[in-house]
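[Help] Beginner question about ligand-bound structures

Sorry if this is basic. My supervisor gave me a protein sequence and a SMILES string for zinc ion and asked me to "get the holo structure". I don't really know what that means in practice or what format the answer should be in. Inputs are pasted below exactly as I got them.
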Amino acid sequence: MITTLLQSGYYEQGSSWLSNLTTSEAFFIIIIVAVAGMIVQARLRSVFNKYSNVFLSSGMSGAEVAAKMLRDHNIHDVKITHTSGMLTDHYNPATKTVNLSDAVYSSRSIAAAAVACHECGHAIQHAEGYAPLQLRSALVPIVNFSSSIAQIVIIIGLIMMSISGSSLLCWLGVGMIAMSAIFSIVTLPVEYNASDRALEWLESSRTLRIDEMEGAKTSLRWAARTYLVAALSAIASLLYYITLINRRD
Ligand SMILES: [Zn+2]
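Answer (accepted):
No worries, everyone starts somewhere. Holo just means with the ligand present. The predicted complex, written as structure tokens, is below.
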């Protein structure tokens, strides 16, 4: 659909596809992405349920696999801790902790090993100064601030526009929403790379057998797709706000 919109806009002289995109078309894109998001989430949960019940031949827990991966990468200052919730696993660069959820920390399943190693992948990125991770961390405070006030800025901007005719404040708000979209795009290489590191190590260290690797790959592939959908969703809402202001400009 985006390609069609792109082409239709591209061939018309003096107007871009973006200025031809209507608010209802942008809203339609948001709905499509939201539906795709629900499908991906459902698939991720079912894949995780499946591989959470397939146990490792080595009998190692998520926490044990994580400790081994960090040791193999000569990382000794990162702690592995236990966090509550489901799919709440994350690496915290501020505290240098790999936080593993209930279903991962003590589970001896293929899904647990895959998730634990993915989080260790982030710890290794941090130790190596992996550039996309550094950029992502630098964006966190900016995005937190801008996303919290962006909608208010746009609403005030729309009022100002109806009074003074100036759309400056509206575009400032759109710039703030664009920060969230940029953040979700920068997140993609960080997440895909952490999964690649996890799978490479699981295979090369023979922590998983060849027949166990497929489950780990499938689990991480579906987890990565949730980040892809999140990025598309951020871009879709950015397009929506742009069309909203273009229409009134
Ligand atoms: Zn991750």
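A couple of things worth pointing out: Residues 118, 122, 191, 194 surround zinc ion (CB under 6 Å). The longest helix spans residues 210-248. Feel free to follow up in the thread.
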